[in-house]
Write a structure and sequence with these properties.
The chain has helices spanning about 1-15, 15-30, 35-45, 55-65, 65-75, 80-85, 100-110, 115-125, 130-140, 150-160, 165-170. The radius of gyration is 17 Å and the shape is globular. By secondary structure, it is mainly α. The chain is about 70% helix and about 0% strand. The longest helix has 14 residues, at about 15-30.
Length: about 180
């Protein structure tokens, strides 16, 4: 999850298209499967979770911090994921950052009751950047300045293949 969070951070803060392509290609080259496949699916919008929705995540944050403080912070920051990532109180003893594949696979199997508790456990084990990436991932609201086309181009750059080859087989692929 840490490498995925760094990728998202890099993509959102990098203004240039070529620099974003380089960041994507580097991530694909240095990240093992299935994490790189799940990251690609998340960036292209091909990954969703049935029970990971904004309302239960917001409720988790309001259990941990004063609801009025949360609402004021969200109004000031303007983004729920960033607000929760910054305001989430640290919990002693929780320091394990999950793998991206672990998050995806466990959330795909999770019930409506299990999903919020899984997310809470992961939020406890991540730093602020990781919490932000986790919330963006599970809610599907990445908005990182890199869409499906750019991700496919980054994949083509990593694999040394023409983008046409990637797009020709894309419709037949499933994550990861």
């Amino acid at each position: 999850m840490r490498a995925f969070a760094e990728l998202l951070d890099r993509l959102i803060l990098t203004p240039g298209r070529n620099a974003k392509l380089d960041a994507l290609a580097h991530y694909f080259a240095t990240t093992p499967d299935p994490d790189r496949g799940y990251a690609l699916a998340a960036i292209t919008g091909d990954l969703s979770f049935a029970y990971a929705k904004p309302a239960p995540i917001r409720a988790l944050a309001q259990e941990r911090v004063d609801p009025i403080l949360f609402d004021l912070s969200r109004d000031y920051i303007g983004d729920m994921a960033e607000t929760i990532a910054l305001i989430w109180p640290a919990k002693g003893g929780a320091n394990r950052s999950p793998l991206l594949s672990e998050v995806v696979e466990e959330l795909q199997r999770a019930s409506k009751l299990d999903a919020p508790r899984l997310i809470e456990r992961w939020l406890d084990g991540l730093d602020a950047n990781g919490r932000w990436a986790l919330i963006k991932l599970v809610t599907g609201a990445l908005r990182i300045g890199a869409g499906a086309r750019l991700a496919k181009q980054g994949l083509a750059q990593y694999g040394g293949k023409p983008i046409a080859d990637i797009e020709e087989i894309w419709h037949g692929l499933r994550p990861p």
